[in-house]
Write a structure and sequence with these properties.
Layout lengths: L7 E7 L6 H5 L10 E5 L2 E6 L2 E6 L16 E2 L11 H11 L1 E7 L8 H4 L4 H20 L6 E2 L1 E2 L6 H13 L4 E5 L18 H10 L3 E4 L21
Parallel strand pairs: 1-6, 6-7, 8-9, 9-10
Antiparallel strand pairs: 2-3, 3-4, 4-5
Helix pairs in contact: 5-6
Length: 235
């Protein structure tokens, strides 16, 4: 008798945002200035405010030889579809024996730091909401039971963060993206004596949903000593 497959639930997976995520979801007036893919000298880059960020080979290694696991920029034609397409990802999960997975962002960085750093916070909030709606509709709802939606929140305002977390949780989100050391990002510490983050903690306590803090989400790798080994840089 064949043994039953050992299905796993992965709580640390990643995705690459599809090229049209924000151009499809932002209001028309923002689509030319919100996050978008543009080719510069044949290399596709995410363009947003004053940043131009390519997708690099290390961010999508599926189907690539180990020699190609490099920081060299790659185009979407070079990337395995399971990196950015939920249907293709489910097919990959079936092969790998993964029942469900939680996915962290790529272009926005692990907890949405790029929107925290943005100048136009009205646009940034819309970008956060667009990412969440994309994850809810095109990943979690399109494949029930296969994806654990981690809600991105606007880290520059605890009241907005609480409101967005609540909106996403009421829509079925399973957790909340946050930084392992938000003070390094220039925001008050979780230990702030004035209770800066209390609005968000109230949502966490009321709903029982976890804060999901990826190592490096402070855009800095914490270290126990100057000689400790580091596996990879963080953006």
């Amino acid at each position: 008798m064949n043994a039953q497959p050992q299905w796993l639930i992965s709580v640390d997976d990643h995705l690459i945002e599809k090229p049209t995520l924000w151009t499809e979801r932002l209001p028309a007036r923002y689509r030319d200035i919100g996050p978008r893919i543009e080719a510069v000298d044949g290399v596709e880059r995410w363009m947003y405010e004053d940043v131009a960020i390519p997708t690099v080979g290390l961010m999508s290694v599926v189907g690539r030889s180990r020699e190609d696991w490099t920081p060299t920029p790659v185009n979407y034609s070079d990337i395995h579809p399971g990196s950015y397409d939920s249907t293709a990802r489910v097919a990959d999960m079936d092969i790998a024996g993964i029942l469900a997975q939680a996915n962290f962002p790529s272009f926005p960085r692990f907890c949405g730091q790029i929107f925290l750093e943005a100048t136009d916070k009205d646009l940034a909030l819309l970008c956060v909401q667009a990412w969440n709606d994309h994850m809810a509709e095109e990943w979690r709802q399109a494949h029930p039971g296969r994806f654990l939606h981690l809600a991105m929140v606007p880290l520059w305002d605890p009241h907005l963060a609480a409101a967005e977390a609540r909106r996403c949780i009421e829509n079925g989100a399973h957790g909340i993206l946050f930084s392992e050391n938000v003070s390094v990002l220039g925001q008050p510490s979780i230990h702030d004596a004035g209770g800066y983050w209390d609005p968000l903690w109230e949502v966490v306590n009321e709903t029982g949903k976890p804060l999901c803090c990826h190592v490096g989400s402070s855009s800095k790798l914490e270290s126990t000593s100057r000689t400790a080994r580091r596996s990879s840089p963080c953006r």
